[in-house]
Design brief:
Mean pLDDT: 78
Strand content: under 5%
Order of helices and strands: HHHHHHHHHH
Structural class: mainly alpha
Distance between the termini: 108 Å
Helix content: over 70%
Number of helices: 10
Length: 289
């Protein structure tokens, strides 16, 4: 089930033309900037600073409206686009700058736009799931969490600190941040801290290595996709060229067959004329004799 389609924020369907998908991706960046502007405006509102110039609201609404109109113009299946982006359409209609919702509903309507962030978060979650599935990265993170909890508990026992302080010390030590607000005071605590640093470097290297492998792999997958697309286009061009060659050869064969048949006919007529001339010559000779 397509969650984004059910929520009405699916965007341009993958089955649409390349131009429609390209323009859709371009507008996604503009919409993300508009959502960031809306988020900043809401934060400023709750901070006591009201920023509501008419041009700003019209500009933000124009981005959403322009995305809707451009995509509707480019996609082939417009009903599918409207059906899978009903929330986009509702936001464009409800947030029309000329509609006066009153002070109590303006913030609600603007906050409704932030629901469109689901479109971007779902893509992020898909990538996160792919990372977790690759190279047992999910199991590595579970081991990482167990290491933090265990190390925090041991540190809290050795240093007679709270469990929260132990967890905080384990996190900043394993990630090699080292704020220095929680430090070991005893000899056993320092020895344990040194061992934890070694394990932390190892585990943190695994985390960064898996993320780097995913980023490199995504580029490789994109390259393989481009190569496969190029091979398909080349195959289609070769198939069309082969079909054209077959038609051309067929026309040549038809033409030469007609020419050969015409030559055979002319040759046959020439032979008939020669025979008739021979017969006439013999008859003429016989009359003389």
């Amino acid at each position: 089930m397509n969650v984004k389609a059910v929520l009405g924020v699916a965007g341009v369907h993958r089955a649409e033309s390349d131009l429609a998908n390209k323009v859709g991706r371009m507008f996604e960046s503009l919409v993300l900037l508009a959502l960031l502007a809306v988020f900043v405006q809401i934060v400023l509102f709750y901070s006591g600073y009201v920023f509501e110039p008419p041009w700003f609201n019209a500009l933000v609404w124009g981005v959403f409206a322009l995305e809707m109109l451009a995509n509707l113009f480019l996609v082939r299946d417009r009903w599918r686009y409207v059906r899978q982006n009903w929330l986009n359409l509702a936001i464009v209609v409800l947030a029309f700058p000329m509609i006066n919702w009153g002070s109590s509903w303006v913030l609600v309507v603007r906050s409704l736009r932030l629901i469109l962030l689901i479109r971007f978060f779902t893509s992020f979650f898909k990538d996160a799931i792919i990372i977790l599935k690759s190279n047992r990265f999910g199991q590595t993170l579970i081991g990482f969490a167990l290491l933090i909890i265990g190390a925090g508990s041991i540190f809290a026992y050795l240093e007679d600190r709270s469990f929260v302080d132990g967890i905080w010390y384990a996190i900043v030590t394993i990630t090699t941040v080292g704020y220095g607000d929680v430090v070991p005071q005893s000899e056993h605590g320092r020895i344990f801290g040194a061992v934890l640093i070694l394990f932390g470097v190892l585990f943190f290297s695994l985390v960064t290595a898996n993320i780097s492998a995913f980023l490199i792999g995504s580029d490789q997958r994109r390259l393989e996709k481009d190569i496969l697309e190029y091979m398909k286009q080349t195959e289609n061009r070769l198939a069309k060229q082969s079909l054209q060659n077959e038609k051309y050869v067929e026309r040549l064969m038809t033409h030469y067959s007609a020419e050969i048949a015409s030559l055979k006919k002319e040759l046959s007529e020439m032979r008939k004329r020669e025979r008739m001339e021979e017969i006439n010559a013999r008859l003429h000779q016989d009359k003389r004799e």
